[in-house]
Structures are given as C-alpha cells and as structure tokens.
Amino acid sequence: xxxxxxxxxxxxxxxxxxxxxxxxxxxxxxxxxxxxxxxxxxxxxxxxxxxxxxxxxxxxxxxxxxxxxxxxxxxxxxxxxxxxxxxxxxxxxxxxxxxxxxxxxxxxxxxxxxxxxxxxxxxxxxxxxxxxxxxxxxxxxxxxxxxxxxxxxxxxxxxxxxxxxxxxxxxxxxxxxxxxxxxxxxxxxxxxxxxxxxxxxxxxxxxxxxxxxxxxxxxxxxxxxxxxxxxxxxxxxxxxxxxxxxxxxxxxxxxxxxxxxxxxxxxxxxxxxxxxxxxxxxxxxxxxxxxxxxxxxxxxxxxxxxxxxxxxxxxxxxxxxxxxxxxxxxxxxxxxxxxxxxxxxxxxxxxxxxxxxxxxxxxxxxxxxxxxxxxxxxxxxxxxxxxxxxxxxxxxxxxxxxxxxxxxxxxxxxxxxxxxxxxxxxxxxxxxxxxxxxxxxxxxxxxxxxx
Length: 451
Description:
By secondary structure, the protein is an alpha/beta fold. 21% of the residues lie in helices and 28% in strands. A hairpin with a 2-residue loop joins strand 8 and strand 9. The radius of gyration is 30 Å and the shape is elongated.
C-alpha cells in the first residue's frame, strides 16, 4: 500500500516568545518538523505534504531544503486540526493509498510506532496513536471497546468514568487518504472554540460503518514542544537517545554525557569519540576512526582509521582519507585530505586538495580568499610543507616537493623541487641594544612629564 505523510506545521507557537515559527526551532541541529519527516521516512512515503501557516514561506523553504519534492499546502486561517489536514486534499487528489497525519512540534514519534500503525491499518479503516499517560490531565481520552476505538472524548466533555481512562490521544492517525478527506469534510465546528477537530473523524467513521482502533506508544514519544523550557527538555531527551543508539551500535563514547549529536550524525562501528565533541549537521565518521576531545565537526566525512583533534575543527566539505591525521588546533574547510596525510597542528587548510602521504607542517595556511573569490591549493602526494608556510592560492605544490619553513609560496612548485620564498636575513650588530636604550629613555622622559 502506498503511503503519504501529512505533516502539520502551521501553528504560530506564541508561547515560544520568538519571531521564528515554532517548528523551525531546532533539536539536534534540525528543525522540529524535520524529526517527524525523519521518522516518517521509515514508511517509504511516495508523497509528503507539509501544511504551513504562520511564517509559511520560511517553513516551506526549510522543508524543501530537506527534500525538494515535498509539497506545500497553506492554512491561511487557524481553524483547528481537522481544517489543517483538509488543506492537503488538493495536493493528494490523485493519490491512492494511506495518509499519516503527523505534527511538526511532536518530534519523537518513532519509526517503529508508525510501522505498528501501518500494520494495524490492514484490519481497520482508521488507526489512532494513543499513549498511557502518567497524568492524563486534560488530554482527550480514547474510549475502547475491545480492540475497537469507539470515540475520542475531550476532557471537558467527558464523564467522570471517561476521565478515569488513562489511554490518551496523541493526535497522530492514519487512514486511506480518500476516506480521511471524506471524513474530514463532515467534521463540524459546533464547539466552544468554533474549531474543526481531527479526533471527530473517529465518531464519524463509526457512523459511516467504518472501524477504528488505536495503537499505543510510550508517553515520551508524544512529547510536544510549546515553550523554550520544553525545547530544552526535548534536546536533552534527543541527546540521551542518540548516545544510547551510538553505544548500542558499537561506537565507543568515552564520556557519553559530554558528546552532542545532530539528527543525521552517522558514526561507524568501533569508532572512538573522546569527551567534549560536538557533531553539527551532516557528519559521517567511518568505522575505526577517532575524534579527540574538544573537536567540532560539521558537514564533513572522516574515513576509516583517520583521527582528528584534540581541538580540531572540521567544516563543511572537509574530507579526511583513510588513516589521515588532523591534529590539535587545525581547521579544515572544503578540502580533501589524502590517505595517510598528516596535518599536525596550528594549521588552516581551506579549498584545497592534499595528496596521499603528504606532511603539512605547523602553522601552514592556505591563503584561499582574495576578498571576492575563493581559490584552490593543490599539494601532491608525499609532499612536505615546512612549518609556517603561506600557500597563496591558486597554487600547486608537486609530488614529493618541499617548501622551506617560513616561505610564502606564490608560484607553482614542480614535482620533487624545494621552494624557498622568504626575505634574506640581515643582522645589524648591536642595533637592538641601541634601540632599546633609546626607547627606555623616551619612556622615562614621558614619565617625568606625567604622560
């Protein structure tokens, strides 16, 4: 059965006290709504519709940055959840399959839970996700009759007996898309808020001789984010879950509580992550690599057996080959570091291709920016770059070539050549002593004048 996702991301989120739409606030360096899309990806959806409203252009742009095929529907008036889902009807007019309704501010619904709902759809027309609440509070209650869900009753409308029910409504549901939109068209707004509520489709389904059921998940999956405090709590829960996942997958975390991950961080088995490492978006660490303490990585790839740090910064486009070494206080940006290459310490390599087996001395800088354009530097295999070399791009250093320490390299260096480009040293006898005497006398004279 084909599957479509309808993700609701139209709310203003006024309790966040922010100019930014609520669903664009981040957990694990990804927008809140991206977590729902990530979980929904386990269903291999053929279509995805994001319903936007407040800050719609920003949310739409962020959605398409994740997947350019995402379709956007707009809820111009905030008239309730049923009304929001109905905005996806036109986008899915030609779709034949099941539709899952997810929420942009509920980031922790798991792929396993969605797959369980998908399985339940085989024998029921509508499947609602519920959870056993430790404190049901004012959640809507799921009224079950065996394995059948007869209705969802809001707290304010519930009897004392119904309020005693602890199985609560998460809002997530799935149904055949055409059936769902038919049910939604029958939802009314005869309630205190004058809004169209998605849970009403269950009772309408029963009236139409359709069946409904519920699938349960852990309450933690249904956590909604409405305030900065809840956002901070959600970040903590995300990081704890990601650390547990990494450990389970065979990654060594020396001090797990000090390592921070992004939603899309991938780390291979037997990699070692030392304390106080931060993974920004789009990082892949292959098996057997090591990232040492206080390093920050983003948009980079570290191959098998390579290591980086401590205090390394790998920026977008950094590619470390097998067994490469990037040492302390080294920054790599948009650069290929070859297999077995060593970039020891206190160095910046940007917009460069460094060949296999090269050795980059301390204090080396690729001078890649002229104030308008970026230029590339190429260093051949087995080359040796002396300490404190400035490589003024565009420039090429050949295979097995060498630069003398302190050189400013502005011209290509042929294979096997030694390039020395520094001013001739000229020693002036006793000039340092004379200069210091003159300066100290001037300082004393100013002190007498109170300057």
